[in-house]
Structure formats: structure tokens, C-alpha cells
Amino acid sequence: MPVHRNNDVEFFNELESKKILREYGIPVTREMAAADEIEAFAAAKAIGYPVVVKGLGKALTHKTDRGLVHLHIKNPTGVAAALKQITEAAGKDLEGFLVQPQVIGKRELAAGLFRDPHFGPVVLFGVGGIFAEAFSDVSFRVAPFGRDHALRMIREIRSQALLGPFRGEKEVQLEQLVNILIALSKIGTDHPEISEIDINPLIVNSDGALCAVDALVVKRPESDKEATPLPVDPALLGKFFRPKSIAFVGVSSQIGKWGHMLFSITVSGGFEGDIFLVNSKGGPIAGRQVYRSVEEIPSEVDLGVVTVPARHVLPLIPQFAKKNIQNMLLITSGFAETGPEGKALELRLIEEARKAGIVVIGPNTMGICNPHINLYCTGSHVQPMAGATAVVSQSGNMGTQLLAFAEQQGIGIRGFCGSGNEAMVTTEDFLDAFETDALTKTVMLYIESIKNGRRFMDASRRVGKKKPIVLLKGGKSNAGVRAAATHTGALAHNRRIFDAACRQAGIVLVDHPMDLLDLSAAFASLPLPKGNRAAIMTLGGGWGVVTVDLCAEFGLEVPDLPDKLKADIDRLLPDYWSRTNPVDLVGEKDIHIPIKVMELLTAWDGCDAVINLGIFGRRFLIDRLGESVLKADPGYSPSAVEAMTRFFRDFETDYIVHIVNLMDRFQKPIFGVSLITDQKDKTVFPIPGSTYSGIFFPTPERAVKAFGKMFEYQKFIKSLDSKNNG
Question: Which of 261, 280, 687, 715 has the most C-beta neighbours closer than 10 Å?
């Protein structure tokens, strides 16, 4: 093949590039190569005017920018002028000419392939032409993929109007476009030597058919990739969270130091195993004996928590090996996140640890916790209750903040790890462990980078089939990418490629830290919605209107009420109620009405979930009303006011029980929004003995977003079912 080499990169000329595309069924324009003017005139005559004349050459990779593409040539005179200008502009790079028919179309798309250093071959689709880079209206998928993801790619671009009927032209031939994207995916997996394919423009003609009128294929040798950590056996990883004895290596008597905090917090959390303190200076700390080295400890040690300075960590490896301590939780910073010297030290440490059979979490980690055994070994005094949400965070501060929110909101935690630099144990290892852990029902991740993109996708897809993964990505902005590089010492990825990979793997992506907790609470407490249809019940009309708008924003439908359901609600509400969805309770004070309307809506087969607004949280207003009455009207006794407020508190308890019973009966999620909340209020309200819990968010947006994300995950599960059944 005629190629142009530049620093081991090979550029195929346009003719040969299109030959590769044609072999995979991608429609390309008819064309003829010409070595000189005589052949060019003959080619134009054979093809028929109007024609396009281009410069052809291995080094001519940006022809339009160099004035080497001449369009709408109607006669030999035009051909002659084009040939002259192309010859002058191309100079010594010119190897001939390319003559094509003028393809007419008002729409220009683009498609292509490139290789991401972490995920491998990635297919691109979007708006093409000279404004492709300016608009940047594109979508991505990691190859290989099939028809389903090709369709999703197409639907993700913002310029959907270009794909439908357009200015008198027919809609794009969808199946042809799908086949083009699948073909690019296949090229990417069949030919690892092809590093890039650029099809721009991909012209849409008046009948909606597509034609590649320009193409570039690039081949380059595979670059040396940074070695990725070897997988860690999930069984070995699980031992970190079930230790019977812990040695704190680098313990300190000084409050505020890591060596003091971790020990103090672990003891105060109620850990029932043996605790040993190690410091080279010896002496008692907190009334406990301090050993000068781990070798002096008289008993077996399951976990070593290390806080000594970075330069002193490597000498610990032979000591751990001699004592047969197989698990090291390395809190210490000063490794890869500090630069090349720290990176080299980290690599050497992990190499020696692996030789000694020692598993290392970290370095630069905030710690771990397992509430199921009262193990709270983190840098913050946070003690969430035991539950089913597993949390891994590459940022320890972010992780412990999430745990603090979880503790406040009543969200149960299966286990937590601040994974730090992930020098040995990576997010992918944790995903493998979550897949088989029976107590984990939901996975919550905060990550800034990944070590192995393909393994991350494969593990996420396997886990996602069984339990939802909710993920927040740090380092999305340019400033965030720079911060992530200094924070974790790892390379942050292109956001859109990463997001595409997550969508393919069934991961539920969120944008804010509180979204992680909201989704974790929802997945752990509610049945999955079977569809996207919402029934809305509100104490006042304004909230209902806002919620309808939010549903549209998050891809949810708000269907009209059927006549029979309207008639049933007519018996409960005044004749001026809204008689539509959302159901406005018009401020009715009868506490039985919301319960009855809620049951009617949940039983309605035209909805997949119910959102109720303002019913819960009225007790705060009643409490304040009681305080005002006692101050203003001596005719009421404190006992009478207390009876009134207790009545509403009891109602809210009964309301939660009723909601949970309805979810169990109809297998539909019910999302609540509180009228008023205070700092002590929780999101999750468990009912003893029940599978589900009451969920009440402080705003309609958070409730609707939770519904939308749960539906997104349900679609992923359904797509797996359809593939298996197909």
C-alpha cells in the first residue's frame, strides 16, 4: 500500500483509505485516480460532470486546509484550473489526482475510529464538515459493540434534526448509518495496527443515503503502555475487612497525627479484635504496650495499618514477611502523587511487596471501615450504620464526607475503602470482590482515574448485571484533570470517552456527591421501576408543575389520568381538584385523603412510580403552630397541644408504613419529598421486617433525578435480558 511514514506513523492516501472502508461495507464515493492532466481529463469525462478534483498524495492529510479540494467543476476548463492550483499548492507532496462525482447533499456527518490508551479502539460519530471541531457534537463507543449501542450513539448527538427529514430531503437511512458504525467497530478489533480512521464528510444525499466522500486511515506501532497492576484475588482483598487483629505501625501519642487518629477512632468504634501498637521508640501509649517492631508482637496479626514516613515503608516489607502479615493498609503519602521520584519509590515498594506475598491498599489512603464488625479505621470520626452499600473512593476526604452524609441520612454501609493511589489494589479489584459479596447490594464509586480501562468495563458489566454501580467522576474539567494528576498520581481520562465506556458497562453516572447518596438510598430502599411513567401527588399545585418540568428534563413521562381513576379520586377531593396528573390535593387537611389517593395511584397500571410531595414533614409546621398557640392563647393547655403534635407525628409514622406496604404489594417505587426538613431529618426510614424503606428527599429535583437514574439502570438490565432471550 502506498503510505507516508512520519515518525513510524503511516498515513494511507485517500484512495487506499477508502479501499479499506469498502472492504467492510462502508459506502464510499466512486472515484478514479489520475497520474497526470491527460488521465484527469479522461476520468472527468468518464465520471460525468459536475466533478470534484483533489490532490492525491501520501503526505496530503489536510487537503481542504491546503486548497487541494475543488468542488462543483462543470467542464474541462474548470478541471484545468483546478489541476494547476493543486499542483502549485501541493508541491513535492503531490503524487497524482483524484477525480470524483460531485455528491450532492445538504447534511454532512462524520465518523471515525481512534485508540484510547486505556480503553483501546473507540468509534466516534457526529456532525461533520468544516465546522465539526467547532460544534464538537459527537458521541463515542468503545469497540466492539453491536446494533443497540450504535443506535444509542446516533441518538446521543444534539443535532437530531439533521437525521430526520431536512429541507426537502428524506431522513437518514438509519440502518445504513448503524452498519457504518458497526463496521468501524469491527475494523478496530480486527486491525490493532490501525490507530485512526477519519471519515469527514459523510454526506447524506436527498434520499437519505450516506456516502464517504473523504477518508483518512492511519497506522502506527502500538506504543509502550504503562504496566497495569496485576489482579488481586477477591478472597485476599476480603481479609482486609474482616481482621481479627490489627497492628498500627507508626502509632503516635500526639493528638491530631495519623498514627494517633486511626488508633483512637478504631478503638472508639468498638472493634472487638486485638490491637497492637508499633513505634520504633517503644514506651506506652494510651496505657498500652508499644512494640519497637512488628516482629516483637507476640501474636498473629491480620492487618498492618502503616503511617510511618514514605522513606521508612520499604524496610517494613521484610518485617511484615517474617511476621507473616499479609495485608498492609498504607496510609502514608509521598509516593506517586508527588512526582517521578515518588512514583519510582512506589513501584519498587509494590514490587517487593508482591514478591513477599503482601497485599497493599494505598498508598495515600484515608483508611477502611466495615460497620458489620464495628471496624472504623479511617481518618475521620465517622461511624455509619451497617447496610448494603459498598463505597470505594480514590479521594479519602471525599469518601469520609460521603460516609458522614450516609451516617446522617440513615444510609447503611456494607464497607468503605479510600483506595488512594491504587498502586496494587485497584478499583477493578474492588469490583471483582463486590460481584461475589452477598452483603453488597449497591456499589458507590468516586474515582478520578482507572488503571485498566478494559478490565474496568468488563468488571463493571458483570457486577452491573447483579447490583447497580453508581459513580461520580472527578477531574472532568481541565482544572479538575490537573488536580486529579497531583492528587492521585494517575492520568485522568477524556470525560466523554470515559462516560461512554460507563454507559456501555451499565454504570449509573452522577454529577454531584449528594447524587451518590441519593441513588444509593434509592437503590437500597426501593423496587426498580419497570418504566418511566410517573404519577404525582402534591399538597399544592406549584410543586406539581415544577415536578412535571423536571420529569421532562430527566426523560420521564407524566401520563394523563384515565376516567375511572378520576372518578375514584372525585369521591375523595372537592370538585375543584386538578383532575389531572399531577393530582393536587388542594391543601386538604384530612390525613386519610393522601393515604387513599396514594393507594389509588400506586394501583394504577398506567404508572411505574409515584412521587408524593409535601405530605411528609408537616409535623414541623404543626410543632411551630403549637408553640405559637401556647404563647398566644392561654385557653389551650400544653397537654392539648402535645396531643395535636403527637397526632401528626403518629400519622407520618403510619404514612411511611403504608407506603412501604404499597411498594411491597405493587412492586413500584414511591419517591417522597418532604414539606420541611431539619438537620436531624433523614432520607431513609426503614420499617422493621420490611424489604423496602420509606424515602423522602428535601427537593423535587432529587426525587425525580433518582427516579430517572433508576430507570436508566433498569433499561440496562432489560437490554441484557433481551440479548439473552434473543
Answer: 261
